Amino acid sequence: MLTLLLFVFIALLLLGLPIGFAMLGSSMLVIGLEGIPVSVVAQRVATSVQSFPLLAVPLFTLAGSLMNESGISERLFNFTRAFVGHIRGGLAQTAIVGNIFLSGISGSSVADCAATSRVFVPQLTQAGYGQGFAAAVCAAAATLGPIIPPSILMVIYAWQANVSLGDLFIAGLIPGLIMALAMMLVIGITAHQRGFPKDAGFSGQRLWHAFKEALWALAMPILILVGFRMGVFTATEIAAVACAYSLIVGLFVYRTLTWKGLPEILLTTGRETAAILVMQQVPHRLGGFWVLNKHRNMWLSS
Questions:
Q1: Rounded to whole angstroms, how far apart are CA atoms 130 and 127?
Q2: Under a CB-based contact definition with an 8 Å cutoff, are residues 187 and 137 in contact?
Q3: Which of 130, 235, 244, 281 has the most neighbouring CB atoms within 10 Å?
Q4: 102-111 confidence digits (pLDDT tens)
Q5: Which domain does 214 fall in, by range?
Q6: Is residue 37 a part of any domain in this protein?
């Protein structure tokens, strides 16, 4: 049965189905062949998402969407561009350094990739880096999201494995920074080999101006990490604080958010959250039914 499960899953992937639907289709096929009641399947899936720690997933996703729409991400990028843009390949380096800060806000690689690619793919392409290189840089930079705390994946892992989320956050910080430095090194070598241009020369006045513009954005990851380490917020509360902070800054400080635009942001958050939860819940709750088929009475009694 395991062979059938894997075969159907791979076949659905080759047909072009999204990963979540491929998992769902292969798992449901096995469940049907094993005769597990659909009512039990629905009960187990619904029960699995009724978890307080999992509230952090949609809240962090919403924080990332608000951050992108409020201009927080763009101000962070302007600051990092003033900081590292003067070196060879500095525009691409800006995307990496900027994602270090973004990762400390959203906890989502999807949100980080959306923010980075929206800002940098057109700029890098226009500057002569090439569209393929620009897309690769943005995609690679977004992988810092699940590593540098706070992280949606760490929240899910801590909930499933019953381990300390605080320890996971601490453990991810240094590896995330090492990843960022390695990416910057690769970009630097590639920039010298391909003769990528430098950005505008370094200017202390420009850096100071960008710092003042990004001050509210830079304070956000500090608020999140310090609040968590001091025990002021739980992981779920941190996500709620990030949402509230992004909303207040966007509406009343930067004034780039509008109340009319919030429904679209909420819809985007709902779609991204659904994709994350499907990827996490389907293999854990559905694919495991066939393994425990011999204990069917236990499932039914629970």
A1: 8
A2: yes
A3: 235
A4: 777 777 777 7
A5: 53-279
A6: no
